[in-house]
Amino acid sequence: MNTIVAKPPQRVDLSTRSTLAAYSDISAAAGLRKISTNIEQVPHAQLGMITRATVTAVIANPWLNTGTDHDLSDRTEAIAPLLAKLVSDRLLEALGGAEQIEAFGKAALVGTSGELEHAGALIHTPYFGNLLREALGGTSIICFVDGRAVPGETLRVPMWHKTAAATRTHYQTLDMALPDAPHPEEIAVIAAASTGPRPHARIGDRTTDQPITSEILKGIQL
User: Fold this and answer.
1) d(CA 18, CA 46)
2) What's the CATH superfamily of 29-200?
3) Could you give the dihedral angle defined by the CA atoms of residues 145, 47, 93 and 55, in that order, rounded to the nearest 10 degrees?
4) Rounded Cα gap, residues 64 and 7, in angstroms
């Protein structure tokens, strides 16, 4: 009788390796079912072409059938860096490199058989957020949305400036459709980025705001 011996995990260096091709080892380790990129371009007379993109990675939920006291850290540390690398490589390819990117955001949706915390475990730790931020050349906290979903929903992903989060011109959202994800046993992880601000931003900024406090409520005109 032959005994099948499982191969030990292989250590690889992903720091300089592109995942745009030949990434079957990474997809297997992450439980990846599919990854897709969506790009939209907004022409603007003064700003030129503003390009915005999302990358969505759909994986099998590694915590199915575990309780709310189950430690999520082991699988987070194993999977989240792989997802960060996969999505950041594709955003950089779609938008022309980190120097072109001005705004970013992230999202995660868990299928109905999973727990909301399963979505958060893949995007709300340094194993994803720090790697995505570094790859895209940012310093800001990455704004986000997470939740539970079924296939066919539309997701609105928020973004803001990658180095100056309070810059109102770059407060924006990107709508995207998820026609076949997440299945009940899956999690969809999304990263979004833009090469520019909202096309017609004109609501001022903190550098031009007048000091406003609740004192103004004492003289409101109706």
Assistant:
1) 34
2) BB2672 (3.30.1330.110)
3) 20
4) 24
Tell me the residue ranges of DSSP E strands in the chain.
Answer: 32-44, 48-60, 103-110, 143-148, 153-161, 172-178, 186-194
| Burial of 45 from C-beta contacts in 10 A (0-12 / 13-18 / 19+) | exposed
DSSP letter at 40 equals E
Q: Confirm if 47 and 197 have CB atoms less than 8 A apart.
A: yes
103-110 and 143-148 beta bridge pairing = parallel
Distance CA 219, CA 207 (A): 25
The answer to whether 59 and 185 have CB atoms below 8 angstroms apart is: no
pLDDT tens, the chain, 222 aa long: 555 555 666 788 999 999 999 999 999 999 999 999 999 999 988 889 999 999 999 999 999 999 999 999 999 999 999 999 999 999 999 999 999 999 999 999 999 999 999 999 999 999 999 999 999 999 999 999 999 999 999 999 999 999 999 999 999 999 999 999 999 999 999 999 999 999 999 898 887 888 999 999 999 999
Q: Are 106 and 191 in contact (CB under 8 A)?
A: yes
- 23/26 Cα distance (integer angstroms): 5
